[in-house]
Amino acid sequence: MIDDPEILAFIAKTEASYPADSNVASAADNRRHYDAMCAVFRQPRPTDISVIDTTVNHVPVRHYIPAHASDSRPSILYCHGGGFVVGSLESHDDVCAEIASSTGMHLTAVDYRLAPEHRYPAQIDDVETVWRHLAVKTPRLITVGDSAGANLCAALALRMRRLTGPMPIAQLLIYPGLGGDHSWPSYLENAEAPLLRTADLAGYRAAYSGSEQPSDQELEEVSPLEAKDFSGLPRTRVFTADVDPLRDDGKVYVERLIAAGVDADWRNHQQLVHGYLRGRIMSRRIRVAFEEICRALQEMAKNVSLTPDFAG
User: Fold this and answer.
1) Which residues pair with 51 in a beta bridge?
2) 181 labelled catalytic
3) Which residues pair with 78 in a beta bridge?
4) Strand partners, 66
């Protein structure tokens, strides 16, 4: 149960622009509502950030460059959320800018193609295109994504392992949707959770997924929890919201990584809901979670163990 007044205010403000039925509306209406909601929360970029918009083989990207960045630090590839249906460089602009400013790392955001106009594998193909371009110049790269974007980060790691391509030195996933079992506790407990309901997930999955009889490769890239082998994947930090159907996706993913010998940790924040990143300007709880995300990135960039109080 959510009783934090700041979280409740964040939910109410979100739903004023992005009502629950937006998730089952047409893609055009969903995007219109989503863009309106993002505009309500969007903050000015930190003054130390400069931005360059460009394309990589026709994939739009936005580079965020902190004034105090160091070439010795890793860079970040960011994949935005939005159920593969909504989201853009604009929707997550302030989040990306603040992460770059807080960590002092170059960050590149990917404007991958959206479903249902473009279905799997268009999204992961776009991410791979940008990833390979960056990896030539910056071999030390960390992937970061929220929600559907976190799914793409996990899928990218599986694809690079299969193709023996350049592997991220680490990945950080924020309330990831990884194809979990809808009988798991979080799907049942949070079936009617604010901002994302369990029933909404099927629509997003149908819009995104390709073949009705996918190959093993397709299955694990759409639903990374379906992978048969979790060994050899990058160091991973996962942040989830407790009041979110997708909470257990992150939990189980980390458990499977650890069982396969991968350095992985899971942090679950009580009373937070899916999509909480925008609420960092309204809620102390969310601000703490956002600061933990930035600290985790800084620690992974230094390639040292995270502080003991990280595990949750």
Assistant:
1) 64
2) no
3) 109, 144
4) 49
Q: What is the mean pLDDT of the chain?
A: 94
CB of 300 closer than 8 Å to CB of 307: no
Q: How far apart, in Å, are the Cα atoms of 163 and each of 65, 159, 221?
A: 30, 6, 13
- Compute the 3-state secondary structure of the chain and give helix, strand, coil in percent, each to the nearest 5: 45, 20, 35
Closest of 104, 149, 102 to residue 290, by C-alpha: 102
- 258, 311 in Cβ contact below 8 A? no
> 29 an active-site residue?
no
Strands (E), 38-169: 49-56, 59-66, 75-79, 107-110, 141-146
Which of 137, 168, 165 lies closest to 153 in space, CA to CA?
Answer: 168
CA dist., res. 256 & res. 263, Å (int): 11
Sign of the four-CA dihedral 29, 109, 293, 283: negative
Helices (H) and strands (E) in the chain, counts: 10, 8
Supply the DSSP string of 94-129, one letter for each residue.
Answer: HHHHHHHHHHT--EEEE----TTTS-TTHHHHHHHH
pTM beyond 0.90: yes
Report pLDDT digits (tens) over 200-212. 999 999 999 966 6
**182 flagged as catalytic:** no
- Residues 6 or more apart whose CB falls under 8 angstroms from that of 2 comprise 8, 11, 194, 243, 271, 273
- Catalytic residue, chosen from 147, 186, 223, 283, is 147
pLDDT at 267: 98
Contact call for residues 172 and 142 (beta carbons, < 8 A)? yes
Q: Considering only CA atoms, which of 110, 99, 114 is closest in space to residue 66?
A: 99
∠ CA(66), CA(70), CA(74), 5° rounding?
Answer: 95
Helix (H) or strand (E) holding 247: helix 247-259
In whole angstroms, give the CA distance from residue 210 to residue 206.
Answer: 8
Out of 94, 111, 146, 244, pick the active-site residue. Answer: 244
